[in-house]
Amino acid sequence: MTAAVFFGCAFIAFGPAFALYIFTIATEPLRIIFLIAGAFFWLVSLLLSSLVWFVAGTTVGHKDGPVQKYLLIFGVLVSVLIQEAFRFAYYKLLKKANEGLKAINPEETAPSMRLLAYVSGLGFGIMSGVFSFVNTLSDSLGPGTVGIHGDSPQFFLHSAFMTLVIILLHIFWGIVFFDGCEKKRWHTLLVVLLTHLLVSALVLKFTSSGPC
Prior knowledge:
By secondary structure, the protein is mainly alpha-helical. It is built from six helices and no strands.
């Protein structure tokens, strides 16, 4: 049963992203490079968020009560801001790279920014999903029984669907964000930032309020 839960949840969480990779990216080496670069940018944003969290936690200490709650809210806010800042930095890098490709080989058609937005969003999403779900997925192999202490027996299933949603959202955020940058619609970037904050806040609320 544990193997069935493991593979079932893994396919739910990462199956669509893997299918998108196989059918739209794997055949083009340049897209693979941009995907890996996008995943790397998300990793660097996670590293900076972790450093900020570590410094803030060390400053506050081991105080209980509302201090830890506010510290968690601060961590989520900073993490989202850093992720979107790195998404903007990656857009700038891709813009320069695209112009360089056109200058080096004018006869060859360079990838469109809309395509690069999709590829970078998928890179952000896959890496985000891996880091958020891999530990939970490994726990599904046992030992133990989910729900034996009154928690939801569907915890792994809920987590898998949540990971899938986050991956798809990163794709949508990437496309909308790049489109806003291209057309200089800065309110679009604000919409992406606010929806990212909203999703993070909802996840934080429901995970801290009790079992799924």
